[in-house]
Specification:
Layout: H1 2-15, H2 17-40, H3 42-69, H4 86-91, E1 94-96, E2 100-105, E3 110-113, E4 120-123, H5 136-153, H6 163-172, E5 180-185, E6 191-201, E7 204-212, H7 217-266, H8 270-273, H9 289-338, H10 342-378, E8 382-385, H11 386-403, E9 407-411, E10 418-421, H12 423-439, E11 446-454, E12 457-464, H13 497-507, E13 511-517, E14 530-538
Parallel strand pairs: 1-4, 9-11
Antiparallel strand pairs: 2-3, 2-7, 5-6, 6-7, 8-10, 11-12, 12-14, 13-14
Helix pairs in contact: 2-7, 3-7, 5-7, 9-10, 10-13, 11-12, 12-13
């Protein structure tokens, strides 16, 4: 199982552009960092400064050795060997391995060099250790870096000449009281440090020496250091790739799983592939954006399936509601062909007219209900005075109540209450509630519309003194197509009004509920004195 999961992860990473980007960007950052270290090369600069200072000190010490062997007062001619044995003095000097010492007379002529005599054994500057630590990989990397460096910088300034020519050139530029220092490359391209300084008898210069370092000693040290950096670079690359793979697996794989689940849900024949619902992986336990994304996708899918279920139920309810008037129409039309009496024909025509108007009303309400969600999203909310809107509606509908012999009472605050919403849609809610209250009221009953502030909400209440709402219907009145009307009003309503009202109110962040008005709240078994619908809206 573990091997199968690892194989799956590797396959996912191989196919994942995101995983490849993570690895490439991490490697690029590492390459830029190492290239910057090698490009700046502070280690080499430090070594160069130290070696230059050291070789100057070495040259001055050698000059002091020659000066110590000179006579104090007798005239000296190094070329003739007056006062000092140059060969003997030179053979007694211990030079660093690979260094060369050249002795010149006062006229600048080369007298002898350390290559011509046997000097003291060279000092072991390595301490017995071999600094040549390299591998095939680091050799290749070092050569690659040298090639890239030569492209960027080109050859360093200075002609590639022998150490003897370097010494002679430097000695030719020597002035009394001045020590000359120069850094060049020899014929093989290795870096050589050279110093020229005078040999003095008192204040008179009687000759000079030129000391050159071993060819490429700094280059060797820098190469060793560079190889160590490159070795660490290889290790860092391996670690970076490993961490990138882990990071990619924790990011790319979950996102890939989420995308695959979403793609299955969007396929044309997804139902044929899997009859079950699409399952989004539950990664909500992760405390990061992927966990949030998983939770959001799961919530979205749940809401989508709830909407699909609601639409399917809505379609079934529509089919059921349309079948009733259609069956009545079919029966009336069939009977109309057989009825001979005119009075019976008139009754059947009245039934047909009633059912046609019922169908028309039902289709219109269904159309409005089906478009409501999209229209609520598209329409822009604006601030408006809720009290002014309810008062205008109450004034208009109050005339209908009075024509029916129903008392209409308006009890609204004098101060405006401004809310943010869709005025036309909320007006549709209150028209429906007030019209329902009037339709359930008989002559002598009363309808009351009042509003009050409650903290950060405003409550608008529509009450009537009609028969009230049956207890078993209190939980159903806001369902689609539910309608319980007096006998004379059968078929005049589709049963969608309260369902649409609830949808509009909830879209505004409000609540709506229905309850019966009783003599006392404690006595729930008493006959209701009427019905009350309450709408609570935030402001």
């Amino acid at each position: 199982m573990s091997k199968r999961r690892e194989t799956r992860n590797l396959i996912s990473l191989n196919r994942s552009p995101l995983a490849r980007k993570i690895i490439i960007f991490n490697l690029l950052a590492m390459v830029v960092l190492v290239a910057g270290v090698l490009y700046l090369n502070p280690f080499r600069d430090s070594l160069v400064v130290q070696r230059e200072n050291a070789i100057v000190v070495e040259a001055e010490l050698v000059a002091d050795v020659f000066e110590a062997r000179l006579p104090k007062t007798a005239p000296v001619n190094l070329a003739a060997g007056d006062g000092i044995d140059v060969v003997d003095t030179l053979s007694g000097i211990q030079l660093p391995s690979g260094s060369s010492l050249y002795v010149f007379d006062a006229a600048g002529n080369l007298l002898i060099s350390s290559d011509d005599v046997v000097t003291a054994p060279p000092a072991d500057v390595t301490g017995g250790h071999d600094d040549t630590r390299s591998t095939l990989l680091t050799d290749l990397l070092s050569r690659g870096w040298g090639w890239a460096s030569s492209l960027i910088h080109g050859d360093e300034e200075g002609a590639k000449v022998s150490t003897q020519v370097i010494a002679q050139d430097l000695n030719a530029e020597l002035r009394p009281g001045v020590t000359r220092m120069d850094t060049r490359r020899d014929t093989s391209g290795a870096t050589i440090f050279s110093v020229a300084t005078g040999i003095y008898q008192g204040d008179r210069i009687v000759g000079s020496i030129a000391l050159t370092s071993a060819a490429g000693e700094i280059d060797h040290l820098v190469r060793v250091e560079r190889e160590q950096v490159l070795q660490m670079f290889v290790i860092a690359i391996i670690v970076s790739i490993g961490l990138s793979l882990v990071l990619a697996s924790t990011i790319a794989n979950p996102i890939s799983d989420l995308a695959a689940a979403a793609e299955i849900g969007g396929e044309r024949h997804a139902r044929k592939v899997s009859p079950a619902r699409v399952r989004i992986p539950d990664l909500s336990a992760r405390p990061d954006e992927i966990g949030r994304l998983s939770g959001a996708l799961r919530g979205m899918v749940t809401a989508l399936y709830d909407r699909i279920d609601a639409n399917e139920q809505f379609a079934a309810d529509v089919s059921h509601e349309i079948k009733n008037p259609l069956a009545s129409l079919r029966s009336a039309v069939a009977s109309l062909r057989m009825v001979k009496k005119e009075e019976h024909r008139e009754k059947l025509l009245d039934v047909i007219d009633h059912d046609v108007r019922r169908l028309d009303r039902l289709v219109s309400d269904i159309s409005n209900a089906s478009r409501l969600d999209s229209e609520l999203v598209k329409e822009e909310e604006e601030p408006f005075d809720l009290i002014h809107m309810v008062d205008n509606l109450a004034q208009y509908l109050g005339d209908q109540a009075k024509q029916k012999g129903v008392d209409f009472i308006i009890d609204l605050p004098a101060d405006p209450i401004v809310i943010n919403g869709l005025e036309g849609r909320l007006a549709q809610v209150f028209v429906n509630l007030i019209s329902n209250a009037i339709s359930f009221s008989e002559e002598g009953d009363a309808v009351r519309v009042w509003a009050r502030r409650r903290d950060h909400r405003v409550l608008v209440v529509v009450e009537d003194t009609g028969p009230g709402i049956p207890e078993e219907a209190l939980s159903k009145v806001f369902k689609r197509f539910y309608s319980q009307r007096p006998e004379g009003q059968f078929g005049d309503h589709s049963g969608l009004g309260l369902a649409i009202s609830k949808q509009i109110v909830e879209a505004h962040g409000g609540v709506i509920w229905a309850e019966n008005i009783r003599p006392t709240d404690a006595d729930v078994t008493s006959e209701p004195l009427g019905a009350r619908f309450v709408v609570g809206l935030p402001f």
